[in-house]
Amino acid sequence: AANEKYKALCAERESSDKYVDRHAQTINLQLKDKQVLAAPPPTRDVGCSAETWSIYDAYAAENAGATGDDPLDAVTAATKGSSSSSKDAGRLFKQVEEIVTVALSSPGCLLEVGEGTVKPPPAQPRHGLVKKGAAKGGAEEAK
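Given the sequence above, the corresponding structure tokens read:
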């Protein structure tokens, strides 16, 4: 008798979630082999320390150079043709070359061998002189 009442109640409330059994959709992703997954990019541990006084000294030196307090330093830097940005570019180029070499030698490399060659940055002309063209045949000042 109790089972019949329960079946009648279930028949009356078929649209309610509490009385109707429904299937749940579950997504099972395909398992991938280790060879299919890409290897993580190589990383390098780097550490530094910065004290308050060294930061202050760096800002003070930068501001002194920007205002032109010592014109002799600016002249010697211009005649040497070297700057910190070119040194940084050289270091960056070396690091990129090392990382590409490691990536190409790893078994899970996704780079093509033709793409693995890194060209060095072009040398910048000194003192602002740039050749405009072979037809004109002269060096003109770049602006």
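Residues 83-118 form one domain. Try to locate this feature in the token string yourself.
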